[in-house]
Q: What sequence folds into this?
């Protein structure tokens, strides 16, 4: 039996052996094929020198553009936007030194101090446009004035009558006792304003404005500004911001007659839940019409809190 089994399953015909050898040859070729690619496929060699030159050119242009930007000077802004370049600056070419007031020194005085003509003209433009030196260190803000010149001139600066001169040249709005008045806040009537008015309030977008209007319509109008806070999705922090802008000129609201209203009519109101509406209806069927709004307090589930909240929207006539 075992001989038959071995002969039957472990013996191969000539055709089978040929197929096995061909399959092994194909597997061997597939394994070796990736290693043979370099011999059949030749990659092109690229010259990257041109690309590197272009990148270098872009870097140079970027540096130049930054330098040009930093060298811009706004005559109407007295801040120090420019750091003087070392180019064309000769620290050995120093002028004479003497005590001077930068607020009154002329162009010729600055030139005697060793300051270039262009820088001296810049100082005069600064003064002519209302600029003023209040302390010696202020000259360091002058465009084109080198740090070495600043350090050299600082010990010789004498600024006189700063407080007196400032008092005589104080702005007109101070001299004329002008009092700034804060503009009146925008006021929104919560019972008559549309979505556009609510959107003008801080923190109120179109969705919140629409929700406020929808909540007002379901209620039948607001009788208190604090009711706006109950709008779905309105954060307490936002309500605190807009509350000073809210007013209520007419607190008249739409009322529901509890002696004739149906169950669906009562339960459609946001303040009257189904169990309250059903209890009012059952009480009316058992005891007859309500003589006053206060009669609904006889219903056990109507607490003082619920009554105070919904009573402005109820009537018996």
A:
């Amino acid at each position: 039996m075992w001989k038959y089994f071995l002969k039957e399953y472990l013996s191969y015909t000539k055709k089978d052996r040929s197929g096995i050898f061909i399959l092994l040859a194909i597997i061997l070729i597939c394994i070796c094929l990736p290693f043979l690619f370099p011999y059949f496929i030749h990659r092109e060699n690229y010259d990257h020198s041109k690309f590197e030159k272009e990148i270098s050119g872009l870097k140079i242009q970027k540096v130049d553009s930054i330098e040009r930007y930093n060298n811009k000077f706004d005559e109407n802004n007295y801040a120090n936007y420019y750091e003087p370049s070392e180019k064309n600056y000769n620290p050995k070419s120093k002028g004479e030194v003497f005590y001077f007031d930068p607020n009154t020194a002329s162009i010729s005085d600055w030139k005697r101090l060793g300051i270039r003509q262009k820088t001296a003209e810049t100082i005069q433009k600064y003064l002519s446009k209302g600029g003023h030196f209040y302390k010696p260190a202020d000259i360091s803000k002058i465009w084109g004035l080198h740090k070495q010149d600043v350090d050299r001139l600082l010990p010789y600066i004498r600024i006189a009558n700063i407080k007196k001169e400032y008092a005589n040249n104080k702005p007109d709005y101070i001299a004329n006792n002008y009092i700034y008045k804060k503009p009146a806040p925008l006021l929104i009537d919560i019972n008559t304003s549309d979505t556009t008015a609510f959107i003008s309030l801080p923190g109120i977008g179109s969705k919140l404005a629409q929700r406020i209007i929808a909540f007002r319509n379901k209620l039948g109008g607001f009788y208190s500004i604090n009711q706006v806070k109950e709008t779905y999705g309105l954060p307490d922090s936002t309500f605190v911001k807009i509350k000073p802008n809210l007013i209520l000129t007419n607190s008249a609201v739409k009322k529901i007659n509890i002696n004739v209203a149906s169950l669906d009519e009562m339960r459609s109101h946001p303040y009257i839940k189904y169990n309250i509406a059903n209890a009012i209806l059952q009480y009316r069927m058992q005891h007859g019409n309500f003589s006053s709004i206060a009669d609904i307090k006889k219903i056990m589930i109507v607490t003082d809190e619920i009554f105070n909240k919904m009573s402005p929207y109820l009537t018996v006539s």
About this structure: The chain has a mean pLDDT of 79.
